[in-house]
Structure formats: C-alpha cells, structure tokens
C-alpha cells in the first residue's frame, strides 16, 4: 500500500515538473531585450498624448492581426508598430503585446522612442523614420544547448537555408524549416517587403551559421527580423555577447531585465556593443 502511494506521489511530482517545463517553454511573453532613446518628453505635452494614443492603438489592434502600424495625427508624427509571431493564436499575440507595452512603460518611461522584444512579439515607437526601412543590425545573439558535432552543424545550416529559400509568406513574415533533427524558424517585421524580408532572414541565418559553431541551439535578433534554430533535446542557451546598432541609448536591457553595459561609439550611438550582466 505504501509502495503504491509512493508511486502515485512520484508520478504526480513528475507530471507537475513536466507541466512546469512545458509552461516555461511556452513563455511567449519572456523578455529578450529592450532599447530606449536618449531623448525625453515631458508629461502633459502633446508628444505624451501622441505616444499614449499610438500605443493604445497598438494594444487594441493586437487581437485582430499579427502586425499593424500607426501614426499620430499631429505634427509630432509619432509612429508605433507591433509584430507577433504570425503562427501563434490571436490570444497569445494580445497578451504578448500588452506585456511588451507594460515593459516599455517601465523601462523606457518618458523616452521619445523605445523598442522591446519578447519571445513572441516586438513593439516599437518613436518619431524617427524607421517604418518600412531595412535594418539588419545585430541587436541580440546567443548560442547554446548541449555540445554538438559537424553533422549537427550541417543539419543546422540546411535548416537555416530552408528559411532563406522559402517563398515569401503572404501576410505574416513567418517561416519554418527543418533538416534531420534540427528545426528553424524566422519572423520578419511586417513593414518589410518580400525581398527585404528574405534579405533580413539571410543575414540572420548567416550570423547563426558563422557565430554558433557546433552549438545545438541559437537565436539572433536583427533590427527587422529574427531567426532561431534548435536540435531535438538541445537544452537551454548560454548567454553570449552581441553587437548593437539600434540608435537607442544609453539604456538597453537584456534577457531577464538585466542591465546591459554599453560601449558608446560616436555621438549618436550608431554602434553600440553590449553584454548581459549575469543575474541568477
């Protein structure tokens, strides 16, 4: 009888651990990075009203489409956009975008421009001319998983190549591919045209192929797209350094909300290098 009770308890514990792991794997609102502009605006100004209006429109649109952009009707011309992983349900997009806006409110309070990338969505606002422009700057990159080998690297390269070769997806920018035991996916921001999206995915795939060696998992976020790969049973990531040319500064934040230390190059932060402080 005691043996049966112990077996049931062990089974229940295992089920709970597996459930917790599954929920962790599906943490669509998990934090990746954020960037905030150096410029500031004051409370009660027209600019403040425009930012609120644009971000409210972003939040209200998320339940209905994986991508949208909005421009304020005033001369300030505040622009905002969001992009969700377009293979996920609308409910996931809605929750992710609202979480991203909350992150922006706390990390980039009163900044004239800001961006935040969560696991399943990206939100950006500002008064610069980023809408519709290509941006293949590396903002965040890391490689990890269990040690691999040349065969695994070849499958990774093939899976990433499938992303680049895929026909431009209609109305979503999401691509998926695989080779052997390696899977890959990518997502472009919806303001890019088909060719610009393909070029961005190609640049992201090149970063992963060149920078991840025999790692069995990796991800890289560029200004207008990101790509990931993982092998079955690859495990988690280890943190890695990345370059950044976002035009935001001096505040950027990395995974888990860690403060990122910046090496400033030039007066306009056109080339920022950063690393994540390890906070366990």
TrEMBL record:
Stretch forming the signal peptide: 1-24
UniProt entry keywords in alphabetical sequence: Cell junction, Cell membrane, Disulfide bond, Host-virus interaction, Membrane, Repeat, Signal, Transmembrane, Transmembrane helix, Transport
Gene3D superfamilies linked to this entry: Gnk2 domain, C-X8-C-X2-C motif (3.30.430.20)
CDD domains found in the cross-reference section: Gnk2-like
Cellular compartment(s): Cell junction, Plasmodesma; Cell membrane
Protein topology in the membrane: Single-pass type I membrane protein
InterPro entries (alphabetical): Cell2Cell_Antifungal (IPR051378), GNK2 (IPR002902), GNK2_sf (IPR038408)
Gnk2-homologous domain mapped to chain residues: 29-130, 134-234
Transmembrane segments: 260-279
GO CC terms, sorted: plasma membrane; plasmodesma
Major location category of this protein: other
Family to which the UniProt record says this protein belongs: Belongs to the cysteine-rich repeat secretory protein family. Plasmodesmata-located proteins (PDLD) subfamily.
Entries under PANTHER family matching the protein: ANTIFUNGAL PROTEIN GINKBILOBIN-2-LIKE, PLASMODESMATA-LOCATED PROTEIN 7
Protein name in the entry: Gnk2-homologous domain-containing protein
Organism: Oryza meyeriana var. granulata
